[in-house]
Structures are given as structure tokens and as C-alpha cells.
Amino acid sequence: MIRFSLTCEHSHDFEGWFRSNEDFDAQRKRRLVECPVCASHKVEKALMAPAVSTGRKQEKVALAMNEQQRAAMAQIKALTAKIRENADYVGDKFAEEARKIHFGETDPRGIYGEATPEEAKGLAEDGVAFMPIPVLPDDQN
After folding, report:
1. How far is residue 111's CA from residue 75's CA, in Å, rounded to a whole number?
2. Name one Pfam family in it (predicted).
């Protein structure tokens, strides 16, 4: 995943996570990228300092957190690991599989995968219960 600093036509700054530069471009073209402040779809990448990878980067991040924050992060990591251990990974078929389970077309089971913002909105409108699983820095290494 790549984190981009983004800005809308009204100069609202925010961040977004994308699989690649091409993924950002495709989502923007389909009007899936939206400013969280004004809902504008005229969004561009803002200038951003490059992330430099060093062997000590994770140590610096951990040292920047206080004890409560480290404990909370450990709980979040444990929860996401437990979810993944007890569910089937369905990849980009998440919305399709979640609907099949919700409407009784397949046996109920825990699943996780990816969904576009548009798919997530559709699931919510259909009354399908789901929640995002955080992607943490360690998940990408």
C-alpha cells in the first residue's frame, strides 16, 4: 500500500491509501476518490516528502508512542490477527461473498478481503454487517 497526501480543488488536505499509483489514477477517474471535508471529486496528489526506509524506522515509530498507545496497538494487532485466523480470505470478491452470506445463498462463515468504497457503500445500503480491518505497518513487511 502507498500513502498519498491529497488535496482537493478547495485546498483541503487529506491522505489516502492505494495499492499503486495506477490504482489511485483509476479510482480518481471513476470518481471514487473524494475529499472528506467537502466531498469534491477534483482531487490531486499533493507534494510529499519521500519515505526513506532505514533499518531503524520501526524502532523510531515504537519509541514515539507512549505506553498506553503501544498497548492499544498491540491489542489492535492481536484482534486483526484473530480475525484473519478465524476467517476465509476472499480477496476482491469480498462484497460478492458478503452478500451471498447475508442473503442466505451460501453457508455463514467469517470472511475478509478487499472492497472498493463504492462496494462498501452498497453493502451498507443492503444492510450487510461488516467492518474495516486496519492495515498496520507490520502487515506490509
Report:
1. 20
2. DUF1178
**Residue 62 to residues 49, 56, 58, 115, Cα–Cα distance (Å):** 21, 10, 6, 30
Cα radius of gyration rounded to whole Å, the chain? 18
Determine the Cα–Cα distance for residues 129 and 123; give it in Å rounded to an integer: 8
| Ordered strands of the 43-45 beta sheet | 13-18, 2-8, 43-45
Domain ranges of the chain: 2-45, 55-80, 87-128
Distance CA 72, CA 107 (A): 34
Put residue 39 in one of left, alpha, beta given phi > 0 → left and psi -120 to 50 → alpha: left
